[in-house]
Amino acid sequence: MKNRFEFRGDKVAIFLDREDGSVMETLIDREDLEIAQKGGAKWHALWSEGTSSFYAISNVSISEGLKPKRLHRLITNCPDDLVVDHVDHDTLNNTKGNLRNVTHSVNMQNRKAECKTNSGFRGVSWRKSSKKWRAYLMINRKQIGLGVYKELEQAVKVVQEAGAKLMSNYIN
Q1: Is the overall model pTM greater than 0.70, yes or no?
Q2: What DSSP line would sit under the chain, residue for residue?
């Protein structure tokens, strides 16, 4: 690995050069440094329009040209039929405690609220007709209603509890 890095207790910060000359960093567990060193000649920060975030990637030569390799997939040894969820939404935090292999559907449950939502919370929207907050979850691209509530806080709580129950069912 050609990147500079520094030890920070039981973590390692790997410095990622960008095309514009700026430098970012990704954080990994110390025990995963060898994986990062063997996994790519040089790690870079790549912007993803789809998630509006940066990822640590390395380009690997294959017969057809270059193929990007993502650090978080290497660290978790993620199978092709799953995706890696960054639990805290920081896609450059590649410590094992922040990563989990999940289905696409489960990963979508852990997204941040869209900026266009009128409540500021995922799964909660204002209904003008009833003048109440509607709570819902999206599961397998279907909206599942959880009720309507006078108070925003109550609707948010219902969504969070239902989401936590869904996640615990997946994990257990």
Answers
A1: no
A2: --S-EEEETTEEEEEEE-TTS-EEEEEEEGGGHHHHHHH-SS-EEEEETTTTEEEEEEEEEETTEEEEEEHHHHHHT--TT-EEEETTS-TTB--GGGEEEE-HHHHHHTPPPPTT-SSSSTTEEEETTTTEEEEEEEETTEEEEEEEESSHHHHHHHHHHHHHHHHHHHH-
